[in-house]
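Record 1 of the preview.
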Amino acid sequence: MSSSKPPGPSNLDNLRVVLVATRNPLNMGAAARAMSNFGAAQLRVVHPFEVAFREARSAVGAGEVLKNAKEYATVAEAVADCALVIGTTAAGRRELHLELRRLESGARTILQQLQTEPVAVLFGSEKVGLTNDDMSHCHWLMRIPTREVHGSMNLGQAVAVCLYELARASGTTKDTKVGRRSAGTPREHSAAAKAGDMERLTRLLYDVLRVSGYVKPRATRATEEKLRRMIRRLDLDTVDAELWLGMLRQIQWKLAQTR
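->
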């Protein structure tokens, strides 16, 4: 008889499934049903197509997951309480600026983090997926190993496959890797900085660089995305994040005195 812990609601309590710019109410319903199947309760939607969101929530038989879904205006707000943020993508021919992991590998890291802190997994819109700006909020990306000639999956199916892999792997999360702690794995001492702290750090650093003249007017969006990705690669804990915020606030104050 296997001694592995069976998949159940307690394994995914810290998971936040985030749907970004979803347009089809059927996809929202399918995602919510998959969450209920595998014990994930927290659904968050970012800038959804309002009619679709309203129809999905009012549908006959709509589950508790969908009824309790929370709506946010931006990705930054939706993931602010999370220590690890993962984006999903079919990859294809896109130029990606983040590490890309296969689902089975990414699921193990996600499960480790879920033991101690909230994790967000982002799913993009049916038409274009996650944008570069959406991805800049992520620590790394994850893909379902589909055929190259037909890599894109239906949104509801993608959510179901990802949650199944998390449930399937939930009894085998022990990490035996020796060496530097990989991004997103649980910390022994200070907790990982939350995404909200990382976003405040990004915006403060961007403002300091803008005032100093580093940011070029024609590259403001691209610069902000690059800074956001860079800061997440630093893999800061809460103590280091506060230290960086304090230093940057002092620099910001000093710059203001000289203007």
